[in-house]
Amino acid sequence: MLFRPTTETDHERIVEVIVDEPVGWIGADRYLGEMRQGMYRPEWTWIAEDDGQVWARALWWGQADSAHPIALHCLHVDPALPAHTDHRPHR
What we know:
The chain is of the alpha+beta class and about 90 residues long. It has 2 helices and 4 strands, in the order E-H-H-E-E-E. It starts with a strand and ends in a 14-residue tail after the last strand.
């Protein structure tokens, strides 16, 4: 699983993530509109992906003139994410 900030080429993949609970739901129009205004930014949007599939996303928000985000608006993990075994070294 790869965890990384997004790039501008990831915008469509980000808005295709379906979130069905109202707390973390950020609609595509809002996300893209506020992205254009600088309130969401690629470096503030992180995904977890495996083989091209986005399994989780984190959307941080900030004011247009902010140097850093000020709020985590959405943290979503796809409920269909397969269970993984613990890969930590055994002692």
